[in-house]
């Protein structure tokens, strides 16, 4: 992703993190500290075992909306953008409504209604892909999902 018109500007990988705001057992997805940090401490690892570091993520997509993180101008704004799509988790409840409105106005965060989608109409039928298999096919095999997402 290129964010500047400079012809020498290096691009950035598109890393979209798609999550539901709550996991099984009503465990919030958005937390202040990852479990991986404690795992690293207790097992003596020099780094936390994570697959994707937060500063690599360009977009966060939840059932609440999309945060275009690559547009953030500061770490504080990035945190506010994540909070704006974190729903009724502790993180999501900690963001100011005026801040969310400003982020939506600037296009850094969008909700379904900002895209002309009524939440009551937001069903799987609006998705381009009907299945994970569709994504694999469209990517010519570049996308290789974990086994738990493979039903074919």
- Secondary structure: number of strands: 6
Strand content: 5-15%
Helix fraction by DSSP (H/I, runs of at least 4)? 25-40%
Largest sheet: 4 strands, mixed
Radius of gyration computed on alpha carbons: 17 Å
Given as residue ranges, the uncertain stretches (5+ residues, pLDDT < 50) are: none
User: How do the strands of the widest beta sheet line up side by side?
Assistant: 1-4-5-6
Helix and strand pattern: EEEHEEHHHEH
Q: How many helical elements?
A: 5
Alpha-carbon distance between the two ends? 32 Å
Dominant shape: globular
Mean pLDDT: 85
Q: Structural class per helix/strand content?
A: alpha+beta
Q: Could you say how many structural domains there are in total?
A: 2
GO molecular function: transferase activity
Keywords: Transferase
Organism: Klebsiella pneumoniae
InterPro entries: MadA
Structural account:
The chain has 5 helices and 6 strands. The chain has a 4-stranded mixed β-sheet. The protein folds into 2 domains: 97 residues, no CATH class; 32 residues, no CATH class. The two termini are 32 Å apart. It is an alpha+beta fold. Strand 2 and strand 3 form a beta hairpin. Helices cover 26% and strands 10% of the residues. It is globular, with a radius of gyration of 17 Å.
How do the helices and strands line up, and which of them pair or pack?
Elements: E1 16-18, E2 22-23, E3 27-28, H1 35-43, E4 59-61, E5 66-68, H2 75-84, H3 90-93, H4 97-105, E6 109-110, H5 132-138
Parallel strand pairs: 1-4
Antiparallel strand pairs: 2-3, 4-5, 5-6
Keywords: Transferase
GO molecular function, one term: transferase activity
InterPro entries: MadA
